[in-house]
Amino acid sequence: MDNTIFAQSIARIRVYETRLLTRAKLEGVSEARDFDEAIRMLQDSIYGSYISMPSYEDGLKASLEELYRDMKKLVPVREVIDILSARYDAHNIKSLIKGKQSGVDVDSLLIDAGTIPLDNLKMMFRDEDYKEMPEILRDYVLKAFESYRNAEDPQEIDIIMDKGMYRYMLEIAKNSRLEYLNKIVKLMIDVTNIKAFIRVKAQERGIEFFERVYIEDGKLELDLFATNFNNPLDSFVKKVSFTQHDKWVREGIEEYEKTGDLGRIEKAGDNYIIDYLRSAKFVSFGPEPIIAYILARENEIKVLRIILTGKKNEVHPDIIRERLRDTYV
């Protein structure tokens, strides 16, 4: 594919990047006197109208949905957006399966940013007719229903659909013939598996459970995790020291062992992906700046949710700052 096809999109993305919130701005908001002052400090940002809605949570969700609507109009190669939209298909499907099994209305949990229009997806579940769903997702939906019928464990739905989501993302990447998309999905798989490995060990759930949640098709093979499962985490750090994950894994585990807070691992993994994306700033032609901008905005929305939830609940600013992710700018 001729990467110059992205030239016009990237020109727009560079303008959008100037509106991203800096770390200094976000830390300033976290220092606000109270929730109302935090909202006022964000009025001059692109989130001003969204967080002024009756529910800031609804506003942040609306801003995310609007981001994907804009990107689908802007970017000429649909797969570049679909590779990330697929994660919202999985989120929505998990919610709809659980809602169907429990009889609970899950509409408020759904996010209209997937590859499947939300109204269409809801109709599929209402009619129990999934033939219009992409084949990979359909297969995993049926597996999830069957597994739940056998075990009645909602966690099984998450495990199965996560596997289906990444398989679907890899198919989109393959169809795009853009190597960067394949690379970013494999990176996400590896980070997900590393986080799961540390979490499962901390919860003492056993190697059998980890093997069930392990996502295939990343660069890190199952054997790397299995042979280190019963060893101290230091042993695992040494094993990944020759991979691109060396620094964030080492620092994340150090923070986790000091605090006992598994959230430090989540934060370290998120920060690593943001740091990896920064190389896109030097790309003039290709999908990299588009992927980087979307993930940067998602990260920004996540950070705003952490800050505003903290301010709403009168959490001390020092604690809020500890939870903040790195920013793209």
UniProtKB/TrEMBL annotation:
Entry's Gene Ontology molecular function annotations: proton-transporting ATPase activity, rotational mechanism
SUPFAM superfamilies hit by this protein: V-type ATP synthase subunit C
Entry keywords, A to Z: Ion transport, Transport
Keyword Oxidoreductase: no
Superkingdom, taxonomy of origin: Bacteria
Family: Belongs to the V-ATPase V0D/AC39 subunit family.
Family matches, as PANTHER family: V-TYPE ATP SYNTHASE SUBUNIT C
Protein name as it appears in the record: V/A-type H+-transporting ATPase subunit C
Species annotation: Fonticella tunisiensis
